[in-house]
Design a protein that fits this description.
The protein has 362 residues and is α/β, with parallel strands linked by helices. It has three domains: 136 residues, Rossmann fold (3-Layer(aba) Sandwich); 151 residues, 2-Layer Sandwich (Alpha-Beta Plaits); 41 residues, no CATH class. 50% of the residues lie in helices and 17% in strands. A five-stranded parallel β-sheet has the order 2-1-3-4-5, with helices on both faces. The radius of gyration is 22 Å and the shape is globular. The protein starts with a helix and ends with a helix.
């Protein structure tokens, strides 16, 4: 992918017709990076993985997950960015006015009739991509996460870079910790948005309660948090992590149906500042360590410098591998999915399966 394409706004087009998907890509491809999904389930999975998508175009009638279900998932998401995305419904001749009214009441942003003209598609993409960009820019300017009151990702980079530069200049210790509520997507699907948001807010308050005045805390994704700890070496960082996890893991949340706990895992980096390093590298190291902790069956806290256990190899599966696996599933060619990809495919499909069970009451 060229550097120029990376800077283009990203648009997701969801339609079970390959002709429609390719036509949309051809019409929008010069000005936008167009992501394609053949049904709502694949589109929803892509939205969970790609925070750069700024507009969604979706058909209504599709297998696996239709456009109405996708719209409901988007509007009910615990991620504010996803919940506020512009969603344009691509309607056909068979879609009645009553269906359109129902979809509009559910939160559709606009409609476009198929077959669409290039100018109609481009005008809507331009208008709503600009709107989405303005919302993101406004969130960055505020500097704070609306739900928790912690810094947002943009402020983390700004404040953290200053702290790192100061530590590097004066040869002081500094560490960064990434925390995440493990399996949070299942909590959201099982208990709904209100319970999910309550957990997010409560965890944010616990972070604020244990941090020092000089520490920097941020919420950087739906259930993902970061702590920058100036003047803190590896040993002291482990103490801080232990204190945070103890405070949060003992929380009990009443869902109205049952009481649940959350599992908080962590990855951290305490770099040697005598080496050639920078703040972004430290963030990447903490993120890498967190990924290993999430995928580990035994380790809940991992330092970037820790060696990967031999019995827990890191199996890197690309988004293209997942898309190809989904294609095999839809075509019935299950045997063509590589064995090492099966666990990841099942993991990605499990939230959708849970959603179906909840909707059908089966």
């Amino acid at each position: 992918m060229s550097e120029q394409s990376v800077d283009k706004p990203q648009i997701l087009v969801v339609d079970d017709s390959k002709v429609i998907r390719l036509a949309a890509r051809k019409m929008l491809g010069s000005d936008y990076e167009v992501q394609l999904a053949e049904d709502g389930a694949v589109g929803w999975a892509m939205l969970q993985e790609n925070s750069k998508i700024s507009v969604v175009f979706t058909d209504l009638s599709m297998p696996n997950m239709d456009g109405m279900q996708l719209l409901n998932n988007i509007r009910g998401s615990s991620d504010d960015h996803v919940a506020n995305l512009p969603v344009i419904i691509m309607t056909g001749h068979d879609d009645s006015d009553s269906i359109k009214q129902t979809v509009f009441d559910a939160g559709a942003t606009d409609f476009i009739a198929k077959p669409f003209e290039s100018i109609d598609l481009l005008s809507r993409a331009k208008a709503y991509a600009r709107l989405s960009r303005k919302v993101v820019e406004l969130e960055k300017k505020t500097g704070y996460d609306k739900l928790t009151g912690l810094f947002n990702a943009s402020s983390l980079e700004e404040q953290g870079s200053r702290a790192f530069s100061f530590s590097s200049r004066h040869k002081l210790f500094i560490s960064t910790v990434y925390f995440e509520i493990k399996d949070f997507q299942e909590v959201f699907l099982n208990y709904g948005k209100n319970v999910a948001q309550h957990i997010i807010v409560t965890v944010g308050k616990r972070l604020q309660a244990v941090m020092r005045e000089e520490d920097i805390a941020a919420r950087i994704a739906v259930a993902k948090y970061a702590l920058v700890l100036p003047m803190t070496n590896k040993h002291k960082t482990e103490i801080v992590i232990g204190r945070v996890r103890e405070s949060i893991n003992k929380l009990v949340f009443d869902t109205g149906k049952e009481k649940i706990r959350v599992n908080f895992v962590a990855g951290y980096s305490s770099p040697d500042l005598s080496s050639d390093s920078d703040f972004n590298t430290m963030l990447e190291q903490a993120d890498d360590a967190l990924s290993r902790a999430i995928n580990s069956s035994s380790e809940h806290v991992i330092c970037f410098d820790d060696e990967v256990e031999a019995d827990e190899p890191v199996n890197v599966i690309s988004e293209q591998d997942i898309e190809q696996a989904f294609a095999h599933v839809l075509e019935g060619n299950f045997y063509q999915i590589p064995e090492q990809h099966l666990a990841k495919v099942v993991e990605r499909l499990s939230p959708f399966i849970q959603y179906v069970e909840n909707q059908t009451g089966s």
